[in-house]
Specification:
Hypothetical upf0131 protein ytfp, seven-stranded mixed beta sheet, about 190 residues, alpha/beta, two-stranded parallel ribbon, globular
């Protein structure tokens, strides 16, 4: 990386800025062309909160006809090691400036990428942690409003997974607190 800045496209928990642990510089609403979100079940990962087979995480798959909302987050290049550690089950994929539609001001950092899950073996009995889903939905609500939450639900594959209720005792390490209004709204969607 030759630049002192990087930018990465957040399409899941990274859309919720409360979940970030690096001193990011800015966040910009964008849409990404050519990719579609998908829930992927993972095999268990010893020493992590994914202590059983089938826990589903968000990833993306290439799809020329698709477009998804998210955030383009600019950060210091010195944060890259920490980001890679957070996204240890993912690989970085470079993004072209042409694939991004900026909703707000246009930014053009030197290095832009997104994280794509390293494809695990197919898992049966996949499930989504409510605490993880809450973080993602809160991020979309904050930046894209209720229509953004609805688009998130409509543009994500494999949303038929079981939801494991862990809101009261969150297993997701970057869980967030929801307002009563957010809880009520999210119940409408799932």
């Amino acid at each position: 990386m030759s630049s002192t800045k990087i930018a990465y496209f957040g399409y899941g928990s990274l859309v919720n800025l409360k979940s970030l642990r690096t001193p990011y510089i800015s966040a910009h609403r964008v849409s990404l062309k050519g990719w579609k979100r998908v829930w992927l079940a993972r095999p268990k990962v010893e020493g992590s909160f994914a202590a059983s087979d089938g826990l589903a995480f968000l990833s993306v798959v290439a799809d020329a006809d698709a477009e998804i909302d998210g955030l383009l987050i600019t950060d210091h290049a010195s944060s890259l090691a920490s980001l890679d550690e957070r996204e240890a089950l993912y690989s970085r994929v470079a993004l072209s400036a042409e694939s991004l539609h900026h909703h707000d001001e246009r930014i053009e950092p030197a290095d832009q990428f997104l994280y794509v899950a390293d494809q695990p073996p197919a898992q049966q009995n996949a499930y989504i942690l409510r605490s993880y889903l809450d973080v993602v939905m809160q991020g979309y609500l904050t930046h894209f409003g209720e229509p953004g939450v609805e688009r998130f639900m409509q543009t994500t594959l494999n949303f038929d997974c079981e939801i494991r209720e862990d809101r009261e005792q969150p297993q997701y390490p970057r869980s967030t607190q929801l307002t009563a209004a957010e809880k009520s709204l999210f119940a409408k969607f799932r």
